[in-house]
Amino acid sequence: MEGSESEKVFDSLNLNPQLFINEALNFVDDLVGDAFDFFHQEAAKVLKTEETDRSEDLKKGVVNVKNIIQLALDKRLSMWEKYSLHHCFTVPQGFSLPKPEGPSGDSSVDINGIENPELASKLDFLRNKLSQVGKESAELNRELQALERQSMLSGCSVASLTEALELYHQLSVNDKFEELVRTASDFHTKVEKLTSRMEGPELPRAKKSRISNGELYRINNDEGLLSATIEELQELVDDIKTLRD
């Protein structure tokens, strides 16, 4: 806006939009500061932290909360300042103030005393545009708040989903581990049963009956099943099935 035609028009009317915006921003800063000072005082009374070690912790906590809110507020106010300067405090292209009449050369203009229909029409146009901009600003603000709420809900949903997935994976791993332990225990029990049968009174009978292709298959009993090969174990299983039959 600086150096533009709009600035010249406002200067001629002794108006300074930037000064108005700065005063509004300063007012908001003072309001936020007073609000958090009051909040700190009330919190200290409720929590009874005055003249205690927790007093400094409470002060740091209030400052941290204020900084978070101030950061979000500054972003919105910055957007409001840019929008106001580029849309609210601009005049239509080709707009010009009437030249002063009279020898005094006074450049001030009495807005209420203007009887120029063309200028009155332009002023009405500006008023309507300002009203429209205000409505658009309110609508944009509502949309921004809706997006912020949606973003917050999405963040909560993602966090919940992540937590659920972690719990699912943890339970899955635990179930697999328990299943592996049960399988190992069952396998150990079966091996012990087979070993006891191998060392029982039926062992000589089993050795004599295991004849295939004219050869006698033997298993080394010095080290039990640990010294047997896979083929020997399979043959042992087949022989046990034969004995049961």
From TrEMBL:
Choose any GO biological process term that the UniProt entry carries and state it. Answer: kinetochore assembly
Per the UniProt record, one Pfam family is Mis12
Domain of life per record: Eukaryota
Could you list this entry's UniProt keywords, alphabetically sorted: Cell cycle, Cell division, Centromere, Chromosome, Coiled coil, Kinetochore, Mitosis
What is the annotated localization of this protein?
Answer: Chromosome, Centromere, Kinetochore
Q: Name one GO cellular component term.
A: nucleus
Coiled-coil segments: 123-150
- Could you confirm whether the keyword Coiled coil appears in this record? yes
User: Which InterPro entries would you find in this protein's record?
Assistant: Centromere_Mis12
Give the family this protein belongs to, as stated in its UniProt record.
Belongs to the mis12 family.
PANTHER family documented for this protein: PROTEIN MIS12 HOMOLOG
Protein name (record): Protein MIS12 homolog
Naturally occurring in which organism (per UniProt) = Capsicum baccatum (Peruvian pepper)
Organism classification, top ranks? Answer: Eukaryota, Viridiplantae, Streptophyta, Embryophyta, Tracheophyta
